[in-house]
């Protein structure tokens, strides 16, 4: 197709890295490219923390799983949704920041996700690889204490980056007819068509899990998702976000 489509289509999570540092100039180039992501109303409501302190890395690795690659990766980043700069802008112009609204939470979180995805793509285009770390939300209060994250900012996820020392198989994605609809949420396909499509995808994922290089399992996508949705995940997040000044009204 073209180099951009090929790059996006070849994304995979990398958790094992070569013992090779990433040059600061290269890293800064990647971050500047990431900043060109779309942003609502130009708010750029994010802050990226590069965690270099070894003890902080060790603690974050433990809190996240443990996930040893957090400690081992050449670069580990924490992406924060951040309204503090917007509050400072209000202070500068003697206006009152109307914080605490759900919309601001959505805007800041989406902005953070967009810049992070841009950063990953930019890194991959230069021969790097990485993995997102949602596990930092296992104990976000401790993460905030470790990294001095203030109110009206919160850690959304982490990211490991480095030169890949593995080439994992690419996970198959859902077929288009299950994610792309015309004119209506339910589209034009029948329930049977969608069920048949999911059956086919389930078998594709089962084959993938049975034949990949590590962590083999006999499981379909729908069973994996059913098990995921059948349990409460991180119930502390609502009270944590309210404490940080998000999602209050």
Describe the structure.
The protein has 249 residues and is α+β, with helices and mostly antiparallel strands. It folds into two domains: 3-166, NADH Oxidase; 176-227, no CATH class. It has eleven helices and four strands; from the N terminus they run ααβααβααβαβαααα. The chain has helices at residues 3-9, 24-34, 54-63, 68-72, 84-92, 102-125, 140-147, 176-179, 191-211, 221-229, 237-243; strands at 46-50, 75-82, 129-133, 153-162. A four-stranded antiparallel sheet has the order 1-2-4-3, with helices on both faces. Helix 2 packs across helix 6. The radius of gyration is 20 Å and the shape is globular. The model has no long low-confidence stretch (mean pLDDT 96).
Task: Tell me the span between the first and last alpha carbons.
Answer: 46 Å
Fraction of residues in H or I helices = 40-55%
Number of continuous helical runs: 11
How big a fraction of the residues is strand?
5-15%
Strand and helix order = HHEHHEHHEHEHHHH
Annotation, overall tally of beta strands? 4
For the CA atoms, what is the radius of gyration? 20 Å
Derived from helix and strand composition plus strand pairing, the structural class reads alpha+beta
User: Mean of residue pLDDT?
Assistant: 96
Query: How is the CATH topology of the largest domain named?
Result: NADH Oxidase
Strand order of the largest sheet: 1-2-4-3
Overall CATH architecture of the largest domain: 3-Layer(aba) Sandwich
Q: Based on CA inertia axes, which overall geometry fits?
A: globular
CATH homologous group name of the largest domain: NADH Oxidase
Kindly provide the name of the CATH class of the largest domain. Alpha Beta
Total domain units: 2
Parts with pLDDT < 50 across at least 5 consecutive residues = none
Main beta sheet strand tally, sense and closure? 4 strands, antiparallel
């Amino acid at each position: 197709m073209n180099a951009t489509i090929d790059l996006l289509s070849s994304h995979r999570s990398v958790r094992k890295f070569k013992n090779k540092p990433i040059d600061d100039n290269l890293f800064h180039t990647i971050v500047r490219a990431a900043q060109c992501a779309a942003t609502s109303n130009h708010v750029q409501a994010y802050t990226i923390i590069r965690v270099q302190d070894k003890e902080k890395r060790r603690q974050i690795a433990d809190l996240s799983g443990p996930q040893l690659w957090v400690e081992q990766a050449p670069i580990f980043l924490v992406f924060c949704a951040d309204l503090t700069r917007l509050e400072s802008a209000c202070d500068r112009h003697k206006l009152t920041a109307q914080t605490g609204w759900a919309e601001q939470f959505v805007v800041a979180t989406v902005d953070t996700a967009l810049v992070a995805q841009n950063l990953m793509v930019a890194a991959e285009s230069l021969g790097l690889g990485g993995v997102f770390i949602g596990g930092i939300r296992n104990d976000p209060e401790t993460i905030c204490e470790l990294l001095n994250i203030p109110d009206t900012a919160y850690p959304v996820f982490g990211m490991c980056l480095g030169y890949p020392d593995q080439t994992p198989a690419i996970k198959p994605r859902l077929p288009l007819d299950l994610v792309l609809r015309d004119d209506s949420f339910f589209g034009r396909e029948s329930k049977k068509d969608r069920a048949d499509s999911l059956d086919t995808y389930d078998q594709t994922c089962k084959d993938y899990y049975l034949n990949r290089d590590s962590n083999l399992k006999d499981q379909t996508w729908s069973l994996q998702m059913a098990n995921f949705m059948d349990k409460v995940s991180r119930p502390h997040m609502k009270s944590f976000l309210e404490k940080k000044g998000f999602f209050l009204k």
